[in-house]
Amino acid sequence: MTAWDLVLDPYLSGPTVRAWVWHAGGIYFGIPLQNFFGWILTTLTIHMMYRFYESPIIMGSKYRARKSYPLILPVLGYSAMCIVHLIPGEPKELRMIGPVIMGIPVILALRRFMRNS
């Protein structure tokens, strides 16, 4: 989610769309760094709560119960969002930053999916 926000925020808060405005500004395309730390903390908290809930349910059959191709759909959706946000190319630097920042989670997810399939 934080990687997605690194691509999405400069576009949506940029001069073309202006969906929101950062009054105090920041060093990353005018976005304050605490925005990204907030995303890391939020997604980590949600992930840990889910893992805590999930672990007693699955126990030893964790990967046996999950061998299905629909699990790849969120990765494909995330990849599509990367492409959609990069097409406008506002700001132009996102054309380089986006594929790297959002590509790393995609590659790791696909690698894990292939390893567990």
Automatic annotation (TrEMBL):
InterPro entries: CruF-like. Keywords: Membrane, Transmembrane, Transmembrane helix. It comes from the Eukaryota. The chain crosses the membrane at residues 20-50, 71-88, 94-114. It holds the Pfam family Caroten_synth. PANTHER family: SLL0814 PROTEIN. This is Carotenoid biosynthesis protein. It comes from Rotaria socialis. The lineage of its organism: Eukaryota, Metazoa, Spiralia, Gnathifera, Rotifera.
